[in-house]
Model the fold of this input.
Amino acid sequence: MPRVPASKRLAAIATAATEVFGRSGYRGARTADVAAKAGMSAGLLFTYLESKEALFHLVFLHGLGLLPDTPPALPLPTPGPGETTALIGRALREIPVRRLRSALAGNEPADVEQELSEIIEELYDQYARYWPLLAVIERCAVELPELDAAWFGGARADIFADMREYLERRMASGQLRQMPHAMAAARVIIESVGWFARRLREAPDAAIYDDQIARRTVIEFACAALVPESVPADADLEPPAVHNGQI
Done:
């Protein structure tokens, strides 16, 4: 039987660990469960990784595409204090939301519906790409305060703030409909994106929704809610005449 390369073994371990940490949290995750899901014994698992901390670090190295094709000497060592949190924090800050930030940096668009559609589509793409890691982060943040600060108090909070500012600006200019609360509207958009792009994949009835259909529905729903209907250029803008209280 051909020998399985260490890089493939590590990738299989990382995939299994991502699922286990995302489901059970940090303290509840058992290395034996990871080993079984990766198709190996617990003893063999620890020839690849020195500790549970190293296993958790591997989840993010692999998920962020930072695991080298030729891994260093095995077993992978336990990361230093704060090393995993620093890795996650850097990665979260670098997740691109270019269209949203470009909209904040630029002038009012000629087509606000296209602008809003592209912003939401980019957010959807990022959530869809990173959803396994986000599941791990959100599940483990309850137990790891530094992780909670990096995501809920850092990157996620920044995205919410940018979306709120974007909506406030476009509402103030009249390009988007006024909402009772801009941050609440920003949350509706981002939570809808997050549910369909990420949580939908974890739901028992996920097969009901095709990903592309879900994506278009979220985008079109938000645009229909926020973009005012345009008035035809040849429309009669005079108010209708009123006679004896009747139009």
Observations:
- Confidence is low (pLDDT under 50) at residues 231-237.
